[in-house]
Amino acid sequence: MLKCDEAGASGDCALDVRLWGKESGLSRPYPVMCHLLDTGAVFQALWDVVLSDATKAAIAGALGLSVLEARAVVSFWAGLHDMGKITPPFQAQVPSLYKPVRDDPSYISAPGAEGEKSFRHEIASHWALYELVAQAGYPDSDRLLHRSVSHQVAQLLGGHHGVFGAVLKAKEAARACDYNPGLGRSGWDDQRRVHFDELRRAMGAFAVPQGGLPAGLAVVVSGLVVVADWLASQTSVIEPRIPGPGWSGTASEVDAHWRGAVGTAPEVVRAARLGRARFSAREFGVMFPFTPNSLQRDLVEQLPALLEEHGPGLVLVTAPTGDGKTEAALFAASLLGRAAGARGLYFALPTMGTADAMLPRVEAFAARALSGERALMLLHSMAWLSSPGGRDGAVMSDAPAGEGALSAGKETAVEADGWLRGSKRGLLAPLGVGTIDQALSAVLPLRYNALRLLGLSDKVFVVDEAHAYGPWMHQLLVRLLEWLGELRAPVVLLSATLTGRTAGSLVDAYRRGAGFREPSQVVPRYPGWLFASGVSGVVSAARGTESNRARTLKVSHRPVVWDASEPAGAPVREGGRRAALREVLAPVAAEGGTALVCCTTVAEAQQTYRDVCAAFPDLAASPGGVRLLHSRYPADERAKITAECEAAYGKPGEEPVSVRPGSVLVATQVVEQSLDLDFDLVVSDLAPLAQLLQRAGRGRRHRRGSLGRPGWAVAEDEPQLVVLDPLTTSDGSAPPRSWGTVYDAGLLLRTSRILQECAPGGIAVPEDVQRLVDEVYEEEFVDRLEGAAREELMRLDEERLAGEAAERHLAVWTSICAPADVKGDLSRLSAREAGVTEELLTTRLGADTGRVLCLYEQADGTATLDPQGRAQVPAGGRHGLRASELADVARRVAPVPGRWLRGGEPGVAVPEKWGTHPSLRDLVLLLMSPTADGSWACRHGRYIISISDVGLEAQ
Description:
The protein is of the alpha/beta class and 955 residues long. It has 32 helices and 28 strands.
């Protein structure tokens, strides 16, 4: 038992250094007091380096303190996060360390208190800290605890493991030990108090806040507490600071430890590369090695004055594919970032492929336009496979083995190490390029969503292809924009085909979060841009600009009978799709040039590829004569095909151009977004008008001159789009059954009708685009039809609107609340409705997909990773697969429809010795046997799944 003169004391109780805070992976146990001090010191360093001056001032203003006082007080809060470790259940996790404390008569607790395993230490922090903070003089409300500053601090710190607890009930909070035996009683309560007082004394955090934090700032502080805890929990940080055996926690020893923590914390933060990028370039010519086009020049001339007068906010850019939206966005982001004092940017894209392609463009921009900390992360579920490191050290690579290891329980170690080290460092890095779902997860009630919001809070958020998301993801984007408005984070939205209604919903969401609730009545211009201030609320009139590539899209609207599933050798039906393809592709085979054939489903793309090869055998026999690209290939094979396509159909280089050899690419929607491909002809199955215009943007995209196009495609400003329409034939009243629900039938009917009307004169790009995109969705559209056709479209419209409403409702039901609705209760960021699980939310973001790894059974009975039998299946080991083995496996994984895998036998199980890396989660191994036609196949449930040169198929 300690005496009061032996250690730092509070009242009649001395600090007990037997209470441990960290011990896993350490040479000796680490007193909880030391970890509290370390975390407070790291938080101070993060405050100094990560937060902007505006955010610091906002936090200080909300608390009613000076900035220096706020720094000390909020850092003190961070130190308090693990106060719940001074409880019997936590200390009992290491019996040998718990025994002396348990046997000490100073510590009293109810029988079995140490067995309260569900009373985790973060929950204990929430319960214990409310009373401690209130007794320190913080504003309190005995009845409505969600209005209590004391409770907000306790709830915020109780969420440091990613989930905020519910608001405590006043009656239970007043008798916390009675309701929670795991808190212990006399002795335990005394030690929490002395640790609280000693921490406050050592850190000099005696100022008392006069108010609480609004939702946005509470999220920022909460996220920063998590980061501080994880950084301070690294064994490499703790081990050199473990006190010697004689350390007893006297006031002078505590002060010395605090001084040491303050001295080492800046280097801990610097090593993590969590600093601030600076938007230092001001001129377009410094950022990019070319002169601005019309759109970019208008932003150069007009946006600076708007920012000077109204402060930062949101910029919406609408322009055709190929009109330089990416560079326009990065330039706008630079101006917005400098005006807001932002610490970096996140560029969000719809797919992993588009994110991979954008990474080098953002990296080149950062090298020219930014200074300071420029750590750049690629963020999507397979980003860890990429190895972009080594380019001036701008892109973070995996940490060396063992670096950044944490002294923590297994779950915490995985989460923290994943976020702060290597490819899982995520949104905390100053610069990021990744998929939109990485950002949208911030507004789902997922663990550590506050950390994601922190990662976005002080960055410019750029969204490419803002039109490309369905009602579910659009509604999540609306909610995210509300939060970014609350956080005053600048935003840039890009779109080639955005309806006026959708544009207005996105702009108004951001303004709502910033406190301006009246609708903006946005009317976008195409091409053009508009600005909405997050400071004054002003929305500028949309500015129209010229297009550097004004063109007339020549639309050939071809009614066809749908015979896409016919075998390649079957007779060609007059008036069918197969006959139409042969007709329009004949010039490619005869005279050279390139063509894109865009299909609705992967299965139809595979069959179309076979049919084109059969129709044009000489073309198919030439290198690259007929290619196939879709999502249902193993990752490495798809990457190889994509690279070949970019080389064959990409932007011409400096060398003289000539007519390209005849080549046809059969593809799915994967070619619509962000791939810079150029074809002499684009052929597409019927799709909603916005998607057709996206695909048409791949037609004669770059200037090749008369020498670079075949004779049938020399008119570069009159690209041709051939649309194969199954709805305009006598037996084509509905979309093909094989399309399922890929596209809404009503939108297809509307598009078909518009194409019939505009095909004779073509579509003027960009002049006609905004009008036509809006026209597809007009309620009055049905008035163009009569009789049964009108009734059918009205029925389909009702189904579509009901479905969209259900999707929006699902998003609202499953997402976190708007910042205005938090109202002092942070648990609303973690609360889920009944039946909503983390698996449901993440699956919904990724849609209904499964992942398979094909193993190839060789003649000797062994299985390999490749059909040739050269890549052996790794055995794994005690610590799972090595990094190189894991990468080799992951590169061979392919996505498939979830229905293929439901109801099937487990098949080959993922070997236990492969470990538990997230990329192996829910992976299905398929043992494939060779077939007579040269493919490989296996039965899984009710399907026979095969793989060949056309990818994966199922029958």
